[in-house]
Automatic annotation (TrEMBL):
<dbReference type="InterPro" id="IPR011989">
    <property type="entry name" value="ARM-like"/>
</dbReference>
<keyword id="KW-0645">Protease</keyword>
<keyword id="KW-0378">Hydrolase</keyword>
<protein>
    <recommendedName>
        <fullName>tubulin-glutamate carboxypeptidase</fullName>
        <ecNumber>3.4.17.24</ecNumber>
    </recommendedName>
</protein>
<feature type="region of interest" description="Disordered">
    <location>
        <begin position="275"/>
        <end position="330"/>
    </location>
</feature>
<keyword id="KW-0862">Zinc</keyword>
<comment type="similarity">
    <text>Belongs to the peptidase M14 family.</text>
</comment>
<dbReference type="GO" id="GO:0006508">
    <property type="term" value="P:proteolysis"/>
</dbReference>
<dbReference type="InterPro" id="IPR033852">
    <property type="entry name" value="CBPC1/4"/>
</dbReference>
<dbReference type="InterPro" id="IPR016024">
    <property type="entry name" value="ARM-type_fold"/>
</dbReference>
<dbReference type="GO" id="GO:0004181">
    <property type="term" value="F:metallocarboxypeptidase activity"/>
</dbReference>
<keyword id="KW-0482">Metalloprotease</keyword>
<keyword id="KW-0121">Carboxypeptidase</keyword>
<keyword id="KW-0963">Cytoplasm</keyword>
<dbReference type="InterPro" id="IPR040626">
    <property type="entry name" value="Pepdidase_M14_N"/>
</dbReference>
<dbReference type="InterPro" id="IPR000834">
    <property type="entry name" value="Peptidase_M14"/>
</dbReference>
<dbReference type="Pfam" id="PF18027">
    <property type="entry name" value="Pepdidase_M14_N"/>
</dbReference>
Amino acid sequence: TNKVQHLPTMHLRLGMQGWHDAATGFLLFSLGTGRRIQYVISKGGSEALLQALTTTAQTEPLDHSILLPLLRLLARVGQRDRKFGLKVQKAEATDTILSLARRSLGHHLHLTHCLWVLQVCASNVTTGTTLGINGAMELLFKVITPYSKRHIRTVRAAIEALAALLKSSNRRAVSRGYLGGLLRLYQDWHRNDVSNNYVYIRRGLLLCLKHITNIQLGRETFLFSKGMEILFTSVQDCLSCKNLDPIINTVIQILRKCYPKEPLPVATVRSSYSFPLPGNAKAEPPCEGSEGDYESDGEEEAEKDLDSEEEESKEEDYDLETDVNKLRSKAVLDRPEEELGQYKAMCPELSHNFQSLEDRTESLLSAPSHSIPNATSVKHPNYRLRNQSVTEMGPDPGEKDFKVPRQSWTNKEIHRWDQTDEKRDIAETAQDAHSCEDPARNHVLIAGGSLDCSDIVTNLLEKHQGDIPFHSPHFYITRAKRVKSIPDYKDLAFPDFWGHQPPPYSKPMLERKYGVQRDKVLDDVRRLIQPDDVIGRTVFDLDDPGAPGCLTFFSKFESGNLRKAIQVREFEYDLIMNADVNSNQQHQWFYFEVRGMKLAVPYRFNIINCEKFNSQFNYGMQLVMYSVKEALQGRPRWLRAGHDICYYKNHYRCSATAGRGVKGNFYYTLTFSIKFPHKDDVCYLAYHYPYTYSTMMSHLDILERSRNPKKVYWRQQTLCQTLGGNLCPLLTITAMPESKKRDDLEQFCNRPYVFLVARVHPGESNASWVMKGTLEFLVSNDPIADLLRKCFIFKIVPMLNPDGVINGNHRCSLSGDDLNRQWLTPNSQLHPTIYHAKGLLYYLRSIGRAPLVFCDYHGHSQRKNVFLYGCSIKETLWQAGCMVDTAVITEDVGYRTLPKILDKVAPAFVMNSCSFLVEKSRESTARVVVWKEMGVLRSYTMESTYCGCSHGLYKGLQLGTQELEEMGSKFCLGLLILHLKSLPCSKKVMSQAALLLDLEEEITDRTQSCSNSSQEIDDEPPCVEEVDYNADSCSDGEEDFSELDQEIQEYLSWVEGKTEDDEVTMRDSYKCL
């Protein structure tokens, strides 16, 4: 190896035969591991080989016994040398390589070796451009022939070299008319290769087409040359053969990339709803550079369409905060100190004298002791909001007259259900479905309907069995009538009114059907190729109501989101979600009603304006469905539903002129198929289990009435009024003092605080289900809950973004802002809930009562399991590669205690999914601000998956509402154990805990690792089918140099004792593996 640099002069000292022996030995050496070849490169092997090639090429006549081993060496070494192209130019070897190739045109063995080196050189953009200018493309097209069984290796080498060259010379190829020639060559090889012996040649031609179509001119020429039709037709012959996947995948990439781009079929990409902001504030769409922020999910996701995990890791490390001064806790104040006094009234537990221990909690339906209204009372002159002035927490004199529920919920006269109904349903199921009934017959219009709603409500309430825990349709209606929405909702969704009862089983994650993505993409391409069967009729539109089709859609109810539905084929519909209010993006949450379906027919739905570059829908997640007929038959539940689910990039783009959208922004399609359980049913489909504002408010009503007032201290106040005029409740929950004795009253007042918030992002409904579990446990009669209440005072804001939830937003408030990016400097007018939640935290800190734990409940769409994000200076600096002086930087590691506890007690929680890094892009989130400004060591974001679990008891299962609620209650158990481990406890508390908990297992710190201590594997295992989200990606494996290595090795084995005419006998070596 040390003599590598002397190869160019070796033949002068050793003679030709000696040089040949040395080169052959070097070849054998280089055929070892890639590690050895990298060592050779590091010693100047590439430069030495290029110089030897130049020297050898100048000898006359050419000594191929030296030249061919040298070319093989260059191909093997050059493909692994990242600077090989630069070295080729420096050695001025491009002309030498081209000259050798031209001189070898009459000898295919020699030519193949030249083509291997040419392929490696062309992989470099600069070198490839030089080769293209010097006529390499024309040379290669002389070698590439129509279908023939002769000289297969040479043709293959030429095609692969051309594919590499076209990465940099695609414009030259288009301008010289080579694209049409490549299409004809591909057709010829495809048509004649009936035995699929030459898959690599066909795929090589497709790679040439793929690189040519990377430029706009290439795509236009491809379309003009009927390339879409040619490839679409040819790929149909390959779908039945799994061995042809390399061809199918490449064709799919080309078809997706060349599908003509077009804007969404809407008048503007901005939301159909807008809201006048107070003062001079204007809702501006996020700037073009904010993609990484606005696409993040939960509190912590950075969703960037990166080419590799390595690049993603670098991006994450770059985002880490490395300034120690910025990481340290600082007691700052973003408002005048005198303002904090108003929050004293939000802590009545600190001043209550408890002269009588009888319950004195304010009824939710009566005026609270204190509330902070929004800084600006906003009128809504452009909308039918009838409740312009509301007595806080009191009855609304202008309550809306809801049509609750709509007659179309049953499509028949409402009546009590009995066995006769069941028999009739069975009989209906057996009948053939009628084509399309007149929807007007069973549909009550939003305005001008003559239906007596009170009779329907009364009839339905009589049917309700009242067996759904913590749910009351009566309470729900009362609360829903007070909701203020931009569309002025007059209808309620049946599931929210009737209630949800979890099924008695957990559903496993959906197994991905092989080839489902490509089948869906080909169906999309078929619309372009065969447009005659495309209906293209708008059947639902928020902006312009259209004629209904066979299916009828509706979404103008609380939390509903569906902007437009277009019937594509008889049983296929394109759906468009509405953007967040005052925004042109944030498309993820959907919730809508569909009715008029046929029985046992798979309906395909395509949601075509998703924004995230990946989704758990590709990894086993299903949407949820609620059937009205099932509910009326005693099975009122949301169920995971849908098959043939996949998520991929589509051909729709957002133009800069369409509602001030971000130019060039891609959209993605979520496609799924559903067979509805009944004919002419009314079903609801949603991204995740819905949990509306009215559901939350009525739930609080029920909790207040169900608690034991002698044990549970409950105060419900109003934190503030939202921009939309809705109330944001604040809860205080703890245990009543055991007596009026001084010691008991002091213990009551001195309990540490726990501050919990949820649902700052409206589309993260799973956060509300977790919060529901927390609240129900806290007011329950469970002895552990009773002990927990004696240990803490809980301050809870169960819904930080009521307006967003009500109006069907995914991420933002009515101001168009992500409220979880406003904690650093919240605006009292635009972000009142954040402003006053932070103000209350400031007040608690000012009186020396900063919370022991702060937790913000979220949902996560990109990962499985439930986990916490926390904050750590040292872990952040270590991850960023900074030197940490432990003598200067000290840190309490108590932030890890709670997640370790949860890992033991909560089946859905996984410690190894947790992170304690502080990113620059998260400095304005609740978790980071409360940690830094309030000095709360245990400041967390709790992320709950929309999908399921990859570890533990629920491994392989999708999480339902029951498991989410369980997580909320287990979080409470974790807080109790944290208290016992971290804070001084009285003997009485410890004795009670000893009776309730296994102290050895739950309380005592253990040295061994936790139950899930093994390093967490990749969050997503590879799919059965390669998932290609990006039509322009390079995931075709063409940079896998093992193919070229294998080709060279096979050639060496074949050439011994073989003649060129024997090549045809080796064709089996080129079948697709």
